[in-house]
Amino acid sequence: MLVLPPLAPLSQQGLLLMNITYGLMLGMGVIYAGTSRRDFILLGAMATIIYVLFLYEQQDVYFSVISAILTLFYFTLLLVKIIRYILFNPIGVNEIYACITGYLILGVTGAPLFYITEQVFENALQLPAQAQFYDFIYFSFITLTSVGYGDISPIHPFAKAISVLISVMGQLYLTILIAIIIGKFLAGDKEASDFEE
What we know:
78% of the residues lie in helices and 2% in strands. It is mainly alpha-helical.
């Protein structure tokens, strides 16, 4: 989903592939994060509504704002569930994958925030002509990683505040998560050496 959107408008097959990939991504979030029946139903309902709105949002700005708000809540729930999974499980391969997924979801979560900000405060961001939703995803990841190319920049104070928030969250996520992983790894080594003795 990070690579396909810029290529999708080039052909009808590319657009269809992107639509299918987005649906699969939403579905996989439901499958992997729906740990209880209630979570599965809640995430499944949200994913279905988001996907239907995604298919129709090109026609109406109202649908795209509602879709962005639901997308923000959906990915925030996924991020919280992933962080809880990392915190409460011993470190293994799945937890490393969860760390990577959490970072990517953090970047994707910033896109609807920027999109909503642009819709509420017109010209809150300096965007290229003919901006698409992918530009918000791009800007979110550029902000998250603190690269800051400058081709898109926040102008409105609220957009600047969100940029600072996402930038700080990106740095905190990496440093805190690395500390947790190393701490759990060292604790596992200590338990293993105590067992050998």
